[in-house]
Design a protein that fits this description.
The complex is a heterodimer of chains A (416) and B (276). With 416 residues, chain A is an alpha/beta fold. Helices cover 23% and strands 32% of the residues of chain A. With 276 residues, chain B is mainly alpha-helical. Chain B is 73% helix and 1% strand. Classes of the chains: A alpha/beta (416), B mainly alpha (276). The interface between A and B is large, with 48 and 40 residues.
Chain lengths: 416, 276
C-alpha cells in the first residue's frame, strides 16, 4: 500500500464574504485580552473525514466541482498545509505539481531553472545531471536553454515544469490540472509519460477537468463533494458519466422563481420570475441548438418607476467573459415596453446563431442608466444557464465548434 | 521500481523528535545551496554594477561612519578608526541583512511555499549563505584598508569568518522565531527594521564597548553581538579579546534561539501557509 489516509479533515476560517481572514497582531491581542471572538467569522470544512487507501500503480483521478475539496486534498498529501484532523501515511517520495512554473525564477535561464526546480522537488545535483538530457528533450525547449525564462512563452514554461516533475521519478506523483495548459501535442506526450510512470509501479493522483484524460489514464476515481468522498470506485467510465449527467442537470436551471429562499426585492421592484422560454412562452429544454430562438422572460412587479431605470439581462461565457447586456429601454421610447407601477411580463430574444456552442450564464440585471447598478452582473441572485449544442449552420462545412468567442452564421454575397 | 524507503506521516501536529527536523534540513542542504546560489546569481544579473557594489558598499559605509563618528562625534578608539569601524560593520551588515532577509523569507517565497513542499527552514538559512559571500568580499576590503593605513594584521585574522559564522547562527535562530510570525502578522514587517536599527545603536558597532559607562557594562555582557564584534577586532588587529562572559552569552543566546526557533517553527509552519 502506498497511501493510507484516515479521517483526514481540514478546517478553514473565513469571513462572511468568503475572504480568508487577515490578522493583525493588534486584533489578535485585543481578542485574546477581551476573550471575544472576532465577528463575522465562520469555520468551514474544506475536507471532512476522508479515508482511503491507494496501492502501487494506481492512477487515481480526482473529480469534483469547484470547492469540493480537490485542491485541499492534494495540498494535504503534498504536505503544503497541515490537516486539522486525521492522518495520512505515504510510503515513498512524493512529487507534486500543483501549479505550473512554481519555483521558476524569471531572471534565470532554463538550464538554471531545471536545477533550481529539481532541487526544490527534492533531487540532488547528480540526480538532476543524470536526467538533465531527458528533461530537456521531453520539454522541447532545447534551443532556448540558456535564455532567461522571462523570454519564454507560457507554453514553454509549462512544458519545462512538467518535464522536471515527470522525470523526478517520485513514487507518488500528485498533479493538479496541469494538462489544461500546453498544446495538444504536448498533452499527448504528458499522458504517455504518466502512463509510463504508472506502469513502472508508481502511484499518481491527479485532478483534471479533462474527462478524456481521466477516462484514459485512471483505473480509479475519487469523486469529492462538499469536502467528503462521495464515491471511490474502479468503475471509472460509468462514474464519469454519472458525474457529467449530474453536472448538466444541476447546471440546467432555465427558470428562476421567487420563493422563500430566492428573493430579489428592493425599493423599486420585486422580481417574480426570470426564465428562458421558447417562442410560445413554454419552458426551454436544458440544451438547445444554436439556431433555435430563445427568449428571456421577466415577470416583475414595479413599486416605483423612473424612466432611466433599465431592466435587462446579461450574458456571460463559461470562462467569465461578459458578452453583452441589454436593457428594456435600449430602444427609442415608442418601442419600449412601458413599466408603470404594477405587474408586468416582458420578453426579449437572445440573438440566435450568434453565440458559440457552450454554456452561458444569463443574469437578470438592472441599472439606473448611466449612474449605478441596482442589480449588477456577476452578483445577480437571478441567474440562469443557457447551453448550446449544435445547430451552428445549415452548411455541412460549419458543423464543428470553432475556437472563438462567438459563432455567428453570416451570409456572404458576391460584391461584383 | 526502486524503493527509496521514504516514509511520511502527515498529522495535524508533528510528533517526531526535534533532531529529525535537523536531519531533514541537513538532507535538504543541496536545496539550501540552490536557493543561496539563485539569490547570488539573480543579484548580480539584475544589478549592472552588482559585483562592484559589493566592494563599494563597505568602502562608502566606512567613509561615512568615519566622518560622522570619528570626525564629528569624536569617538576615541585605540588604533585606526576606519579599520575599527569596518571590522564592526562587516559583522553588523552580515547579521542585520541576514536577519532582515531571514525573517522576510516566508513572505518573499510565498508563491513557492503555497505550492510545493520542501523543508521550510531551507529558505530561512539560504540568505545567510548568500550574504556570507558578500561578507567575505568585505573582508578583502578590510585587508586592503589595513595595508593602506599601515595597521598591523594579526595572525588571527583567519578566525574572522568564525565570528561571522557565529553571527549567522545567531541570526538563523532569530529568523526561525520571527519568520513564521512575520508571515502570519504583517505587523512584524514594520517592527523588524526598527528593531534592527535599534540593535545597531545598542551594540558596539561604531563605538568601543570599553567606552560605555561602568554601570552599563552588564548590558554589553548580555548583548550577544558585543562579544562577536569585539572578537572581529581582536582577530583583525589584536584588539583586546572579548570578555569571556560576553562570548558565553552569545553561545547561550544562539543555542536558545536555535532550539526554541526550531520548536516554534515546527508548530507554526503547518498553519502559516493558510494565512499567507
Amino acid at each position: 500500500m502506498m497511501i493510507n489516509v484516515q479521517n483526514l479533515g481540514k478546517k478553514y476560517q473565513k469571513t462572511d464574504d468568503g475572504r480568508v481572514i487577515y490578522h493583525t497582531l493588534r486584533d489578535n491581542l485585543a481578542n485574546m485580552l477581551t476573550g471575544k471572538r472576532p465577528e463575522n467569522i465562520y469555520e468551514f470544512w474544506a475536507l471532512k473525514d476522508v479515508s482511503f487507501q491507494v496501492n502501487e500503480g494506481d492512477v487515481v483521478g480526482v473529480l469534483g466541482r469547484n470547492g469540493a475539496g480537490k485542491s485541499t486534498l492534494l495540498k494535504l498529501l503534498s504536505r503544503i498545509t497541515a490537516p486539522t484532523t486525521g492522518s495520512a501515511e505515504l510510503h515513498g517520495r512524493v512529487g507534486s505539481l500543483l501549479e505550473v512554473g512554481t519555483g521558476f525564477h524569471l531572471e534565470l535561464t532554463g538550464r538554471e531553472n531545471i536545477f533550481v526546480n529539481g532541487a526544490i522537488m527534492g533531487m540532488n545535483r547528480p540526480e538532476i545531471q543524470r536526467k538533465f538530457d531527458d528533461i530537456v528533450e521531453f520539454s522541447g525547449v532545447g534551443e532556448f536553454l540558456d535564455m532567461p525564462v522571462k523570454h519564454y512563452s507560457s507554453g514553454m514554461i509549462t512544458r519545462l515544469a512538467f518535464s522536471v516533475a515527470a522525470f523526478l521519478e517520485p513514487e507518488i506523483l500528485v498533479i493538479d490540472e496541469v494538462l489544461a495548459t500546453g498544446d495538444d501535442e504536448f498533452q499527448k506526450r504528458c499522458m504517455g509519460q504518466m502512463k509510463n510512470i504508472s506502469k513502472s509501479g508508481r502511484t499518481i493522483l491527479f485532478v483534471s477537468h479533462n474527462m478524456n484524460a481521466i477516462n484514459q489514464l485512471c483505473n480509479r476515481l475519487f469523486w469529492l463533494e462538499r469536502g467528503t468522498l462521495k464515491a471511490d470506485t474502479t468503475d471509472v467510465y460509468n462514474t464519469l458519466n454519472k458525474y457529467l449527467i449530474g453536472e448538466a442537470q444541476e447546471n440546467s436551471t432555465t427558470h428562476w422563481l421567487a420563493d422563500d429562499t430566492h428573493k430579489l426585492e428592493n425599493d423599486y421592484f420585486t422580481l417574480k420570475s426570470f426564465a428562458l422560454v421558447d417562442a410560445q412562452g413554454g419552458a426551454l429544454p436544458p440544451i438547445i441548438p444554436n439556431d433555435q430562438q430563445a427568449f428571456v422572460e421577466i415577470k416583475i412587479e414595479m413599486k416605483e418607476y423612473h424612466p432611466p431605470m433599465g431592466m435587462g439581462y446579461c450574458v456571460t461565457s463559461e470562462r467569465g467573459e461578459r458578452l453583452y447586456w441589454s436593457f428594456h429601454n435600449d430602444t427609442e421610447s415608442e418601442k419600449r415596453p412601458d413599466l408603470q407601477v404594477g405587474e408586468h411580463i416582458i420578453r426579449a430574444p437572445i440573438p440566435r446563431n450568434m453565440l458559440n456552442e457552450g454554456s452561458y450564464q444569463v443574469e437578470f440585471v438592472s441599472r439606473f442608466i448611466p449612474y449605478r447598478w441596482i442589480v449588477e452582473p456577476g452578483s445577480s441572485p437571478a441567474s440562469l444557464v443557457l447551453q448550446i449544442r449544435g445547430g451552428l449552420s445549415k452548411s455541412s462545412l460549419f458543423q464543428q465548434r470553432r475556437e472563438a468567442l462567438l459563432a455567428p452564421e453570416i451570409v456572404w454575397s458576391k460584391a461584383a | 521500481m526502486e524503493k527509496t524507503g521514504h516514509h511520511i506521516i502527515i498529522q495535524p501536529q508533528q510528533s517526531r523528535p526535534l533532531w529529525e527536523d535537523i536531519t531533514e534540513l541537513w538532507h535538504a542542504r543541496a536545496l539550501v545551496w540552490v536557493f543561496a546560489w539563485r539569490e547570488i546569481s539573480v543579484r548580480y544579473k539584475q544589478a549592472l554594477i552588482g559585483f562592484l557594489w559589493v566592494f563599494l558598499q563597505p568602502v562608502i559605509m566606512t567613509a561615512i561612519f568615519t566622518f560622522v563618528f570619528s570626525h564629528v562625534a569624536k569617538i576615541q578608539v585605540s588604533g585606526n578608526y576606519p579599520v575599527f569601524v569596518l571590522c564592526g560593520l562587516i559583522l553588523w551588515q552580515y547579521f542585520s541583512r541576514s536577519v532582515f532577509e531571514g525573517c522576510n523569507a516566508m513572505v518573499k517565497e510565498k508563491l513557492i511555499i503555497t505550492k510545493i513542499y520542501f523543508p521550510r527552514a531551507a529558505i530561512i538559512v539560504a540568505p545567510h549563505i548568500s550574504n556570507f559571500l558578500d561578507a567575505l568580499i568585505a573582508l578583502l576590503v578590510l585587508v586592503a584598508l589595513m595595508l593602506l593605513t599601515g595597521t598591523a594584521i594579526s595572525p588571527m585574522i583567519f578566525l574572522m569568518p568564525v565570528f561571522l559564522v557565529m553571527a549567522g547562527l545567531l541570526s538563523i535562530g532569530v529568523s526561525l522565531v520571527i519568520a513564521p510570525l512575520q508571515a502570519m502578522y504583517r505587523d512584524f514587517a514594520i517592527i523588524m527594521p526598527f528593531l534592527i536599527q535599534l540593535a545597531m545603536f545598542a551594540s558596539p558597532v561604531f563605538y568601543p564597548a570599553t567606552s560605555v559607562p561602568e554601570n552599563l557594562t552588564w548590558f554589553f555582557m548580555v548583548n550577544p553581538l558585543s562579544g562577536l564584534l569585539e572578537g572581529m577586532r581582536w582577530a583583525a588587529y589584536g584588539a583586546e579579546f572579548p570578555h569571556a562572559l560576553a562570548l558565553v552569552s552569545t553561545a547561550l543566546w544562539t543555542i536558545g534561539l536555535c532550539v526554541g526557533g526550531l520548536y516554534t517553527f515546527r508548530i507554526l509552519q503547518g498553519r502559516l501557509v493558510d494565512r499567507l
